[in-house]
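Hi support team,

I submitted a single chain yesterday and got back a structure, but I'm not sure I'm reading the token output correctly. Could someone confirm the output below corresponds to the sequence I sent? I've pasted both exactly as they appear in my results page.

Thanks,
R.
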Amino acid sequence: MLDIAFDLKGSFIPAGYVFALWDEVVRCLPWLDAEKYAGILPLRAAANGENMLLPQRTKLVLRLPTKLAPQAMQLCGQELDAGGSALRIGKAKEKLLQPHPTLHAQLVESNSEEEAFLADMADQLREMGVVCKLICGKRNTVTGAKQSVAGYSLVLHDLKPDASLQIQRAGLGGKRHYGCGIFVPYKTISGLD
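Hi R., thanks for writing in. Yes, this is the structure output for that exact sequence:
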């Protein structure tokens, strides 16, 4: 797995953009829909009512299997209509996943209460053979025109290098296509024992 960061031109995107954006990327790259662990990382944008403003340096980042990187470059130069927002995809740069002791996911999909969510995450980590500590963030729901997804933000810390890469490759929970359960490096947390 690797990340491909595409330059992104546009002024705004709807707050519940994840569904429409995935549909548009799959329109351009139809084979991507069959990739279980592929997804779009949450965009860095500023909330502004029903829309989110896109800073000039915002990137569209796809996480996908390394072998598919050449095919993904077909996205360069494409025009997308994500929920009424016109976006133009520019140049791309590949970024290999790097081990990091602390990882964060903006949203890990779950319909459970926090206690049950944390127990489920602990079970998934145990099944993967990953030992680490968890910090659950606030519950959040992303709502699009026709669907929604709910869950929690989650920080995993005290990860060994191999475990860090494993989590970044596989993620946790479901709905990976919509950016759920995709982990990225986070500032180091220490002294919490």
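A quick pointer for reading it: Residues 103-185 form one domain. Let us know if anything else looks off.

Best,
Support desk
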